[in-house]
Design brief:
- The complex is a heterodimer.
- Chain A is mainly alpha-helical.
- Chain A has one domain (about 5-355): Amino acid/polyamine transporter I, CATH 1.20.1740.10.
- Chain A has 16 helices and no strands.
- In chain A, helix 3 (about 40-60) runs parallel beside helix 15 (about 335-345), helix 5 crosses helix 12 (about 265-295) and helix 12 (about 265-295) packs across helix 13 (about 300-315).
- Chain B has helices at about 5-15, 45-60, 65-70, 85-90, 140-150, 180-195, 200-210, 225-235, 270-300, 305-315, 325-345, 345-365, 370-385, 390-425, and strands at about 25-30, 35-40, 80, 95-100, 105-110, 155-160, 170-175, 220-225, 240, 250, 430, 435.
- The chains are: A mainly alpha, B alpha+beta.
Amino acid sequence: MNYALKTRQVCLFIIAFLPLSKLFVLPSVLAKIANEDLWLCTVLSLLLDFISLSAVLYACKKADTDFFGLLRANFGKVGEVIVLVLFLIYFTFKAINPLTEQNEYVKLTLYTLMPTLLYFLPFFIVCFYLCTKKLRILGRAADIMWLATIIGVTILFAMSISNADFSAILPIGARGFNAIIKGSYKSLNWFGDSAYLLFFIGNFKYKKRDYIKILCSFLIHAVIVTSFVIIFYSIFTSIAYRQRFALTEISKYTVVINNMGRFDYVGIMLILLSNMFSLSLPLYFSCKILNRLFNFKRVFIAPIIVVSIQVIIMVFLNENIAGFISIIQDYGGFYFLIVGNILPVFSALLKPKEKIYANQAN
Amino acid sequence: MKLTRTIDENITYLKKKLASEDITFLELTVGAKDAVLIFVNDLISKNEVGELVLRPTTLFKGEPSEEELFNAFLSPEKFKRYDHNEIITDVLLCNAVLLTDGFDFAISFGLKYFEKRAIAEPPTSTVLKGPREGFVESLPVNISLIRRKLKTPDLRFENLSVGKFSNTPVTLCYIDGIADNELVKKLRKKLSAIDIDAVLDASYISKFLGEHKTSIFKQVGNTEKPDILAGKILEGRVAILVDGSPIALTVPYLLIEDFQSPSDYYNSSYSATVARAIRFISGIISLFLPALFVAAELFHLQLIPLSFLLTIVNSIKGIPLSPSYEMFLTLLIFEILNEASVRMPRYVGMVVSIVGGLVLGETAVTAGIISAPTLMIVALSGICLYTVPELEQTFSVLRLLFLIIAGSGGGYGLLVSIAMFIIYLISFENYSTPLCAPFSSLIKEDLKDTIYKGFIEEHEFRPKSIKSKNKKRMNIKKDKEIN
C-alpha cells in the first residue's frame, strides 16, 4: 500500500503547524479571563487535546482504511454524511477566528500606515493553492516548515525571556477553578486540533511505538504554547490582557531592538510564513470533506467553494467580525468541544473495515 | 527498400536520394566486379579510406565470394547493410559505404573524421583542484571520456537517433544494476517519441524530457564534466549525450544539485560545507534582498535599525522615483548590462562592465536618479546570483517577480508569494522524484550531501532520493586500533 504520509511527517506537522495560531490573540484573551492562571487554562485545553489525540492514534493503529472508509464501514453512507457535515461546519467556524486574528494582525501591526483588508486577501490565494494539493504535499510542507516554526519561536523566546519575571504566575490557581474552566472553554476554538489528525488515519503506516513519537511531538507543541503564554504573562503581568497581539509584543522590551532594529521580526516573519499553512488547515480539510461528499471531478471546485465562503465572511463582516467571533466563542464552545474533542475520542471505537465485512459475511 | 544485386539500379536510386554535391560516388573495381564507394566529402578520414578500403580492393583477382569480400577489409568498424535507407543513414552519419555489383549487401565503414575542438576545461565549471577535462561537441569523444572514468562492463550506452532532418545521434548512458530500469525504459520511450526537425543542442532534448512543460525551474540536470557525470551515473541517474553538444543531461534532477560544485568533492568536507552554505545563503539573498529592502522601505520601516534608516533617508532625499520603481529600474539596468556583456565580444564586454558598473552607477547616484543603498542592494544581489550560476536565469526572473509583489503588497505580500513558491516547489516532481528532495520529502540519510557535505565514510550508500537497484556504494572497514 502506498501511503501519502510518513510518521515523521505527522510528527513534524504537529510541531510546525499546531502551535502557531495560539500565539497571536489567545494569550491576551486568557490573561483577561484567568490572569496569572492563563497557563493552567492552556494546559487544561492541551490535556483535552492530548486525550483525543491518543484516541485518534489508537484508531490509526487498528485502521485498515482512511477516515472516510471507516465512517462508511461503521455507519453506512447516511451516517458518514452526517459526521462529515458536522466536521465541515466545525472547520468552517474554526477557520474564522484565526483568519480574523491574522487579518487584524496584518492590518494593525504590519501595515500601520494603510490598514486595509486588501493586504490580507492575497493569503487566500495561498490557501486555495494548498487546498488543491494532495495530503502528500501537506506532509512535505511540514518537512520544511517545522524549521521555520522552531527558529521563529526560538528567536522570540531568546529575545523575550530575559524580561520575564516568572514569579508573576504565582500563586498557582489564585483565580480559582472557575476562571480556569471559563478560560479553557473560551479557548476551545483555538484547540481541538486532533480533528485534523482524524484525516491522517490510514494515510500513514502505523508502526510499533509510533504513538510515542507522535505524542512526543504533541508534547513539544504543548511546551511551545505553554512556555509562550507563561513568558508573555511574566513580562506584562497585570497589563497582559491589553497586549492584543502577543506575538509582536512579547519581545518589544528587548535591548537588541535599540541596536539592531526589530530583529525579532525575523522570527515573527518565519512564524507568519509557517502560519499561512497552519491557517489553511481547516479549509484544507473542509475541501477534503466536500470532495468526499460531492465527488467533484475537478480539483479546484471544492477549494473555490471553501475559500469563497471565508472571503465573503471576511469582507462582509469586516468591521463587525469581532461581535461574530464573540458569539461563536460564547455559544459555540460546546460544539467545538463535541466535534473537536469528543468525536475524535469516539474514533477509537471505530471497527476496521475488514472486520466489519467479515462479520457481515458470517 | 532492399538492395538488388545490380549495382546500377542501386546507384541510380541512391544518387536520386543523395543528390547533394558534397556526396561523392567513387567508382572503382573489386577484382572483376564494378563497385562504388559513397561518402560525404571532408567528413571521412581519407588516409584511412585509402589504407583500409581502397588498397584491399586492388588485391582481388577475379570474382570474390561474399565472405572474401567482407573479410578483406581491415577496418575495425564495418557492418553489412541490406537496405537503401540504412545506407543513406550511414552515409549521412559520415560513414563510407561500398556497393559491389552482384552482391545484395553493402559494407559500411565507420571512418568518419572531422575537425574537433580540443578537450578543455569547461568555462561553466572551473575547479582549482580536480580533473580539468570537459566534454566537447563530438559524441564519440564524450563517450570515450566517460568510459575512461568507468571501466565496467555494466556501463551501458544505447544509441538512438533524433530529428527528422538532423538525425542527431543521442546516447543514453547508465550503469546496469544501479540505474532504475523503469527510468531507463521511460527515457528510451520519451526520446523515441520526440518528433522534431532537428536537434541542434542538448537543450532541445531537455525541453522534451521535462514532465512540466511550463515550469520555470529546470527539470533535467546538466554537466560539462565527465567526472561529475560519472559521479551522477554512479548515484543511479541516467545520462543523455547528444552529438554536437558539450552538455550531458542527467535525469532525475534535484534542485540541490545546483548548489553543489565539482570542487566540493575534491576539497575537505569542512570547506565544502562552508562553500555550500555560502552558496545557499547567497541564493536566498539574490532572490529576496531587493524585494525585502523595498518592502521595508515602503511599508515596514520598523524593520530597519535606526542608524541605517537615517542613512537611507539621507540618501533617498531628492530621488524622484519611489523605492519600488527605483529598485525595478536599477535591476532592469543590471539585467541589460548583463545581457549586453554576455552577447558582446569579450574585450568589448569588459568595457561595458566598466562603463555600466562604474560610470553609469556612479553618475546615476551623483545625479540623484537612484540612491546609493539601492545600487548597493542590486550589486550585492547580482553578485550573489552568480554563486549559483545554474539557477541564474530562473532566479533573475523570480527576483523581479518578488520585487513587484513586495513593492505593491509589502512584507505580507512577499510572505504570501514565498508560501506559494514553497508549495510550488514541494509539489514539483519529475520522474517520480521530488525536486526539493532530500529536504522535502525529508530524507535524513541524504542530507549528508546537501548544504552539509559529509565525510567520505558517510557516503556509504547511494542517495535514497534517486531510485536505484543497488544501494550500497562502499564498504567501510574500520581499522583496528593500534596500541
